[in-house]
Design a protein that fits this description.
mainly beta, YjdM_C, Alkylphosphonate utilization protein, YjdM
Length: 111
């Protein structure tokens, strides 16, 4: 029995093969085995595909609602000195006026 990689999009572990492609039943993401075969699992990419690292500065690309607050994070908000973590929200940071936050890398772009 071969061990298939986790889904690169949602990290779901029970993927399956469909011809030449691997498929995630959780999020329906399809990819080729060679497309993500050499990639380290801990690599975090922004919305444009740039690799993010601890200490980078990023910009928010979409207005984001903040749970427990009546205000939202506006597009173009600059976030300095990010810290990468494991999980669904893979960026920890501090934003002026909001405090400590967790963001998804798909909603930011590297400056």
């Amino acid at each position: 029995m071969s061990i298939l990689p986790k889904c690169p999009k949602c990290k779901y572990e029970y993927t399956y093969e469909d011809g030449n492609l691997l498929v995630c039943p959780e999020c329906a993401h399809e990819w080729s085995a060679t497309e993500y075969g050499n990639e380290d699992e801990s690599v975090v990419k922004d919305s444009n595909g740039n690799i993010l690292q601890d200490g980078d500065t990023v910009t928010i690309i979409k207005d984001l609602k903040v749970k427990g607050s009546s205000s939202s994070l506006k597009i173009g908000t600059k976030v300095k000195n990010i810290r990468l973590v494991d999980g669904d929200h893979n960026i920890d940071c501090k934003i002026d006026g909001f405090g400590a936050m967790s963001l998804k890398s798909e909603f930011v772009k590297k400056v």
